Amino acid sequence: xxxxxxxxxxxxxxxxxxxxxxxxxxxxxxxxxxxxxxxxxxxxxxxxxxxxxxxxxxxxxxxxxxxxxxxxxxxxxxxxxxxxxxxxxxxxxxxxxxxxxxxxxxxxxxxxxxxxxxxxxxxxxxxxxxxxxxxxxxxxxxxxxxxxxxxxxxxxxxxxxxxxxxxxxxxxxxxxxxxxxxxxxxxxxxxxxxxxxxxxxxx
Length: 203
Prior knowledge:
The structure is a single chain. 44% of the residues lie in helices and 14% in strands. By secondary structure, it is α+β, with helices and mostly antiparallel strands. The protein has a 6-stranded mixed β-sheet with strand order 5-4-3-2-1-6.
């Protein structure tokens, strides 16, 4: 029998009991101060049967945004000493934090960070603001409905096979939107961190 994170688009009630475990693992990473869950899970927290595509995890860090932005996928793949990283102009804590946090993919996590200078960053390309992001998701859902004949609103009635097919088309649309953009930390234009945290749940 598969565990919840191997299922395609699990229900909130299937995810909820695992959040302490996820939080404990992330809190052990150097540079982490607090851990929050955001996005569709937080928005639909009281609807236990709501199905989520991924887990938006925000980590509040003690690392400056420019140090995070300069930490790219290429450097985190290398095995370097702190001294060598500093010689190349990197901040070792930023490199180690990024490596550990982004390696943690077991639960289909979407990785976010709040820097010490109160900037919101995302690992991987993002659109400039929430309104545009919402529009792209809507476009992706409409495209997916046309391709599969399946409506996101009726996803609870889909079989696992149909959910996987729906999710495949949805992800392909999103991925094509960001094609040719390199992996790394991207800064969001959302600049009111307090509002963001009010929409999140600390775990």
